[in-house]
Amino acid sequence: MKTSTIIWTIVGILIVALAWFWFTTQTAAQDYSEGQTKANAAQEYRSEVEPIPLLRVATTTGVGPHLVARNGMTVYRTDKDSRNKSNCAGACVLAWPPYVLTSSQTLIGGGGAAGKVGTMKRRDGSIQVTYEGAPLYFWKKDVKPGEARGEGMGKWHVVRP
Q1: CB-based contacts of 61, cutoff 8 Å, min separation 6
Q2: Could you tell me the maximum CA-CA distance found in the chain, to the nearest angstrom?
Q3: Residue 22 — left, alpha, or beta (φ > 0 → left; ψ -120 to 50 → alpha)?
């Protein structure tokens, strides 16, 4: 076989292989993109149809009915705060992290919380969830849903529905 025929055969094989590779990667990328779009649309649909309230009522042995966040963790208020104003900063925030919304979360009431669920802007610019105007916090020693170890710690209390 001539050298030029061998070279042209190899070039032809390479062209076919590159075309096949390009076509399959484009199809896979398009399938992935369409799948992501469908997944995002499904998530948005679920969010509209099955919204998750910011607060819901739970009952803990020894504490009784109180409010918990979306993640099931107990929320607290403090007597040191005033309506829609947090006085918890610095070391306080390390022990009592504020219940803040991320940019992708929306304010959704319900979940058995009869009072007004709202938000307020903290000094650092974050948006903190409130209940009847009381800024809400978590207790750092509550490590799993259903715990309410912060009840009665100084001027801190679980939030009653």
Answers
A1: none
A2: 93
A3: alpha
| pLDDT for residue 29 | 42
Task: For residue 92, give both structure tokens.
Answer: 């306080």
Q: What is the per-residue pLDDT for 130?
A: 93
Does the predicted TM-score (pTM) go above 0.85?
Answer: no
Closest CA to 137 of 63, 64, 86, 82: 86
Question: Is the CB of residue 157 less than 8 Å from the CB of residue 81?
Answer: no
Of 138, 154, 148, 139, which Cα lies nearest the Cα of 63?
148
Query: 142-147, long-range: CB within 8 Å, 24+ apart, which pairs?
Result: 142/73, 142/74, 145/58, 145/68, 145/71, 145/72, 145/73, 146/58, 146/60, 146/72, 146/74, 147/60, 147/73, 147/74
